[in-house]
């Protein structure tokens, strides 16, 4: 797997990184998504509905696989049990890059999930931690080359911005797959922070603003865990 993208809830990855993933898939990269929870505590919709929506979004993006860890929404912990579960996934798919939640955010699961995935990525590279796959075979230690964190509710200054011009429509279509969560005048469920038309518009105008800053139409921002390196100053677009 070239890229494994993690989200605390179904729709996190789409909101934060769908344009980037769609671009990499179009370039021939293999991409998978792992949702930590089913989003069962969400005010709108249900776990089963969101599972269906996640499958629809995955088809829109064209990812190779999507898996849900079934951790407890709102109450999962960054502890040994959860880290070991993610280590098995990381070793099974051996991603070159990992993308995960924002380092801090409005929802408590986002920052918590971000740190959990980051810690699991480090521990997964330690050969003395032994894990077995579902067939009972011992897994090899594996650590991704890079861990990137997308940006969610809070305005976090990105370390890098990916040009997603040409892929904004795919991103919005993947986000729109979650009809239970976002603005729909026909939906009579209680309003939430993300169900207003303003929130859905903000996904578009944030991408447009990041694109403006880097001189393109649309962009998605990420923070990094170590300095990004380039061969030459001319590598920048």
Structure commentary:
- This protein has 237 residues and is α/β, with parallel strands linked by helices.
- The protein has one domain (3-227): 3-Layer(aba) Sandwich (Rossmann fold), CATH 3.40.50.10320.
- The protein has 6 helices and 7 strands.
- The chain has helices at 12-26, 47-61, 80-93, 108-123, 168-176, 197-214, and strands spanning 3-7, 31-37, 65-71, 97-100, 146-150, 160-163, 219-224.
- A 7-stranded mixed β-sheet has the order 3-2-1-4-5-7-6, with helices on both faces.
- Helix 2 runs antiparallel to helix 5.
- The two termini are 26 Å apart.
- The mean pLDDT is 97.
Q: What are the key terms here?
A:
seven-stranded mixed beta sheet; 237 residues; Rossmann fold; alpha/beta; globular
Blueprint of the fold:
Layout (H helix, E strand, L loop, with lengths): L2 E5 L4 H15 L4 E7 L9 H15 L3 E7 L8 H14 L3 E4 L7 H16 L22 E5 L9 E4 L4 H9 L20 H18 L4 E6 L13
Helix pairs in contact: 1-5, 2-5, 3-4
Helical proportion, percent range: 25-40%
- Distance between termini? 26 Å
Major β-sheet strand ordering: 3-2-1-4-5-7-6
* SSE order: EHEHEHEHEEHHE
Q: What is the overall shape?
A: globular
Number of helices: 6
Radius of gyration: 17 Å
Total number of strands: 7
Main beta-sheet strand count, sense and barrel state: 7 strands, mixed
Number of domains: 1
CATH top level assignment: Alpha Beta
The residue-averaged pLDDT reads 97
CATH topology: Rossmann fold
Tell me the CATH superfamily: LmbE-like
Low-confidence stretches: none
Structural class, by secondary structure, is alpha/beta
């Amino acid at each position: 797997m070239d890229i494994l993208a993690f989200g605390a809830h179904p729709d996190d990855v789409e909101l934060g990184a769908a344009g980037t993933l769609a671009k990499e898939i179009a370039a021939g990269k293999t991409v998978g998504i792992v949702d930590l929870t089913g989003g069962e505590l969400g005010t709108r919709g249900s776990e089963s509905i969101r599972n269906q929506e996640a499958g629809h979004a995955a088809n829109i993006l064209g990812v190779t696989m999507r898996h849900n860890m079934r951790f407890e929404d709102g109450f999962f912990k960054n502890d040994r049990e959860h880290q070991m579960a993610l280590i098995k996934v990381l070793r099974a798919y051996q991603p070159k890059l990992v993308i995960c939640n924002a380092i801090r955010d409005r929802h408590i699961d986002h920052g918590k999930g971000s740190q959990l995935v980051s810690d699991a990525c480090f521990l997964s590279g330690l050969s003395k931690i032994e894990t077995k796959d579902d067939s009972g075979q011992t897994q090899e230690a594996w650590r991704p080359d890079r861990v990137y964190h997308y940006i969610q509710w809070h305005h976090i200054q990105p370390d890098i911005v990916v040009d997603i011009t040409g892929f904004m429509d795919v991103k919005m279509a993947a986000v729109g797959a979650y009809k239970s969560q976002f603005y729909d005048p026909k939906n009579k469920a209680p309003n939430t922070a993300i169900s207003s038309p303003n929130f859905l518009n903000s996904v578009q105008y944030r991408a447009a603003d990041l694109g403006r800053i880097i001189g393109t139409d649309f962009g998605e921002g990420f923070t990094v865990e170590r300095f990004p390196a380039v061969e030459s100053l001319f590598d920048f677009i």
